[in-house]
Amino acid sequence: MLHRPRRLRQHRSIREMVAETRLHPSDFIAPLFAMEGKNTREEIASMPGYYRYSLDLLAKEVQELWQLGCRSALLFVKVSDDLKDNEGKEALNPDGLMQRVIRKVKAVAPEMCLMTDVALDPYSEFGHDGIVEDGQVLNDETIGVLVDMAISHAQAGADFVAPSDMMDGRIGAIRIGLDTAGFTNTGIMAYSAKYASCFYGPFRDALDSAPVDVPDVPKDKKTYQMNPANGKEALREAGLDIEEGADILMIKPAVAYLDIIHNIKKTSTVPVSAYHVSGEYAMIKAAAAQGWLNEKEAVVEVLTSIKRAGADLIATYFVKDILKLLKI
Ligand code: PBG
User: Beta 41-44 vs 47-54: how paired, if at all?
Assistant: First the structure.
């Protein structure tokens, strides 16, 4: 036999030498959940081992992440019900939870690349990413709030804003808004291909942000998030976001959408990131808890697959696990 591919798999050193994909600490973005309070953290029921932190403990968590080699965090906040409305007014409060979290994290880890979620859902009384009227999620009216929200995050010190709302035209509007306000160096990581996915379930538990079941409010996000049946449409969305000034594109979820990551990476002129979302975390945790699969091996295999598909960056709730494994 002239060809024996197994020669390159004989032992670990050879296998590692010829590995086509390698994970590195700077590949990862740590999603973080903040809440009000002092010295407390709450485990998210559907995300065992993952927590919401009060500001002081979140700062400690960020320091630990930095020590482990993590260089980027993506911030989310849990807003109390009395601060929620239809227009997301609280999202613009200069002393709102998100704005305080940004300042605090920047103070303890000034070199950490801070990214912030821009969408109305944690602030929306209806659990939608935009303003709701007559059973519709309004596009252009929502964009106005998103632009102000992005500016408010930039003012507080965010390095990147990450619009996750899927309204049409918001990347261009946010870019112009940031530039006009003097934030020409604040980047945009656009959730370009965000699918209407059941895998966000545990995240909505974490932030108490699921669409509410009341008349005249859409029950799901299918009029703005993408149909899982579509692949070409993701290329269209990605192209529009690049034209509108996005610095990084995001695909979400990750594992069920590896083809989308691959195809966007092939054509994108900007870095591509993938969000390994809450439900993808929960699935591995649940199976591992049953003893049905080896958690560490699953984490390495899944994250490697996401990178192999074409993701330059990966947001994952397994960030500490993988950073610890990479240290060994
Ligand atoms: C909200 C937002 C969601 C996620 C990130 N930003 C949920 C949603 O669209 O309902 C999901 C993240 C995850 O599941 O880990 N704009």
Answer: antiparallel
Whole-structure pTM value: 0.97
Amino acid at 50: Y
Distance 301 CA to ligand 1 centre (A): 23
Distance 52 CA to ligand 1 centre (A): 15
* pLDDT of amino acid 114: 98
Quote the mean pLDDT of the chain. 97
> What residues are in contact with ligand 1 under a 6 Å CB criterion?
117, 119, 121, 129, 164-165, 200, 203-204, 221, 277-278
| Number of domains into which the chain is organized | 1
Catalytic residues: 194, 252
The answer to whether residue 69 is domain-embedded is yes
pLDDT single digits (tens) 68-126: 999 999 999 999 999 999 999 999 999 999 999 999 999 999 999 999 999 999 999 99
Asked if residue 133 belongs to a domain, the reply is: yes
Please give the distance, rounded to the nearest whole angstrom, from the Cα atom of residue 200 to the centre of ligand 1: 6
Residue ranges making up the domain that contains 274? 21-326
Take atom 5 of ligand 1 and give the residue whose Cα is closest.
164
Residue 179 has pLDDT above 80, yes or no: yes
Query: Where do runs of H (alpha helix) occur along 163-318?
Result: 170-180, 201-207, 232-243, 258-267, 278-289, 295-309
Provide the CATH number for the domain around residue 312. Answer: 3.20.20.70
For the CA of 194, the closest atom of ligand 1 is 9
Could you tell me if residue 245 is inside a domain? yes
Q: Quick: pLDDT tens for 256-282.
A: 999 999 999 999 999 999 999 999 999
Cα torsion through 270, 28, 118, 157, rounded to 10? -90
